[in-house]
User: What shape does this take?
Amino acid sequence: MKIHIKKSARKELMKLPDNILIKTFKTILSLSDNPYPGGFDKVEGKDNQLRLWIDKNYRILYGINSNKDRLDIVAIRHKSEKIYK
Assistant: This one.
């Protein structure tokens, strides 16, 4: 599965602390092999958007396109931020 990181998510990646950045990249790469890992959940009110914890304070929001050949990283956010926007 191909991975596409949206421009806004790329900007968010660059703001992450180094230890979270490494975990995030590892998690994103693992999503290409298994887009439905243990611990993911569907974002309420959003069609086809999923959420996965990177650690206890950071989340990845992502979606799988209808052909299931591309995974779109929508956002990487801190728990206290408005992660649903």
Summary: The beta strands are 2-5, 41-42, 49-53, 58-64, 70-78. Residues 16 and 69 are 27 Å apart (CA to CA). DSSP finds two helices and five strands in the chain.
